[in-house]
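ARCHIVE RECORD
Type: protein–small molecule complex
Small molecule: thymidine-5'-diphosphate
Source of inputs: curated submission
Record status: active
Notes field left blank by submitter.
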Amino acid sequence: MAKGKTAVYFCQSCGYESAKWMGQCPGCREWNTFVEELVDKKSSGKSTTKMSGEQRRPQTLASIEVKDEQRTASGMEELDRVLGGGIVSGSMVLVGGDPGIGKSTLLLQVCKNLADQGVSVLYISGEESLQQIKLRAQRIGTFTDHMKLFCETDLDEIRQIISIEKPKVVVVDSIQTMYHSQVSSAPGSVSQVRESTAAFMQIAKGDGVTVFIVGHVTKEGVVAGPRVLEHMVDTVLYFEGDRYASYRILRGVKNRFGSTNEIGVFEMRGDGLREVENPSEYMLSGKPEQASGSVVACSMEGSRPILIEIQALVCHSNFGIPRRTAAGTDFNRVNLLMAVLEKRLNLKMSECDAYVNIAGGIRMNEPAIDLGIVLALVSSFKNRVIDEKTICFGEVGLSGEVRAVSMPAQRVAEAAKLGFTTCILPKVCLEGLQKPKGMQLIGVSNVREALDALG
Ligand code: TYD
Ligand code: MG
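STRUCTURE (tokenized, with ligand):
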């Protein structure tokens, strides 16, 4: 063993550190994930961020001067919204997502927009060659000379180049390929990723450079290897979506400079990612007409209402245990709502197979779509078509009551904007609600009233 280095075992799934090998990780309960890594104890202690010239004595809140964080528009409104109003200089943003979802494309487009504004950008790629990046860049458009490319995985080299070039924004694609010479384990292992992130953190906080990091995602959907990475950065964004559908959703998971509820919607085209300004219209395109088991519901994603189509197929089960699936929403929630229907409305749901789907492949877990799921299930069960200009929202409780949800006014306004004429909503939400022109608002207090409202 090299001098000054200690062997430590790391769980490759969650980053749990142990002095000896274990079969099962006590942190995440995964089996066979421990790998021995040599760590230079001295250097790893030093590389935690320590801002220069900072007061060493405790301060009162009143004595701390607050500077407004400087934000730069990324040129993509959807991204700016998720970031909380633009790119904060000196921040560190982690972009995670499945392979091929478009992380490199998104960041290359951000680079282009920033370079167009005259911001100097350095794109460091450890995955693709300069030619490959150029081919992709040609699809996106023409780049100004403020954008520079560098293919390298060695952190020492990268640090040197950054100190020479002095870019304002650095993109690292991807953190799993970066190699820190003081850590002897292979690139992509927990200690490599952690040390590399810490090194970029120093660059970000020390020199006020904004760093975007691409992180790969494992089968389970978390950033590969280390959850530790998520703790270190300022902002974590996940890029998700069905690989086979063309739209992509950018979701904030952690944000030190804004809310984490916001989402950005993009569409993958032949010439890069395009922002989708009106996601509701996009989600509802292709909705079948005159089909039973389909209803439009409204879910809030952050400050933005999104209309979605909920589909249900309920049919007689041939087996003792009925089959049920839920795509795009919580499976247990669907089971619970079916039990509520069985008990409160005497519908024989327990003898039926049921399949529930949120059309478009989007995932929605807000309780406000409960009423939509209930109406879709009943519509399919009774084979009755719900009027296509009807929209609904509301949370359904265990005794079949329809409970209040937040921001009813925004939801109703979005429905009116898209030409819906009837809205079924919780009765308590009617209070103080302005009725948009041409919209009929039906307040209901339980599921039976909601079914009666359908006529
Ligand atoms: P990429 O950004 O390489 O994904 P990641 O970095 O997340 O692995 O993008 C991948 C996919 O997007 C790839 O399969 C090709 C497709 N694509 C387009 O459809 N249009 C485009 O203009 C570009 C650049 C890529
Ligand atoms: Mg990539």
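CURATOR ANNOTATION: The radius of gyration is 26 Å.
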